[in-house]
Amino acid sequence: MLFGGHVSGGVKAAPERAAEIGANAVQLFVQSPRAWRFPNHDPEVLGGFEERARALGIEATVVHAIYLCNFASPDDELYGKSVSTLQSTVDTACAIGADGVVFHVGSHLGSGFEAGIKRAVPAIEQVLERCSDRTWLLVENSAGTGGTIGRSLEELATIAERLDHPRLGICLDSCHLWASGYDVTDAAALDELLDRFDELIGLDRLRALHVNDSQTPLGSNRDRHANLKEGLIGDGLAVFLGNPRLQDLPALVETEGQQGKGADEEEMRKLRALWKKGTTPSRAPARKRGSSARRPAARGTRGSRSRGRRRG
Q: Residue 15: which of 61, 65, 66, 63 has the closest Cα?
């Protein structure tokens, strides 16, 4: 597993910032997240990004599209701006050798899931044609607030099926999964989630993880990130990070950090500690001298443990 976070600095300074906090993976914006205007990047800066990142030990780069985009919107002006901006984002991501561009499908704004999907699919198709074999387009699961699309594995599967494109991938966010009712702290529930993901979408499409704690309860459908180990998921993130099927992915933190300025050294330290806890086999405590081993208690009836796909 690679460890990183969303950092400031854009194409000019993100690799250096990631290295400063001890990361070997990085996520960045390639434009201001608060404005539609796309910058005219210096071609030399873009061309030198990959070499700079490699020299600093950065092994994975992910670009995040701005949050203003909404591909499910019935508003034509917003829809057009969203497509144009994501196309420019993908072009820049390809130029810097990024592994993927993470984006949110957006909200149908009350028009309904099917209407939103019918709007989103042709928009995303236009962007996918700009991707390369290396730089994929990654749909991020949503927390389920309002009319947002992508709140369940079934909704993500619908998107993947309708698009049916070899360069479409998925980014799973731990906080969003939790908010949508998926208990990422329960090993059995997480295994069932990944089994279902493989059945509906295919684990080969899972390309990145966002590792965030949550300020809100399981199934709240509210997207409120918390610093690692400071929210309601807490140490349970070790279960998410420790799952064997997730070990080849970049794990990226999107929290405020200790100073409110984004991922920092302390968040990287906690991320690695949680991963170590999740991947270290538990050992039974040694018996006292002279004591005898007890016969294990009888197992409960099959199916007695709750293993639902979603809770809340």
A: 61
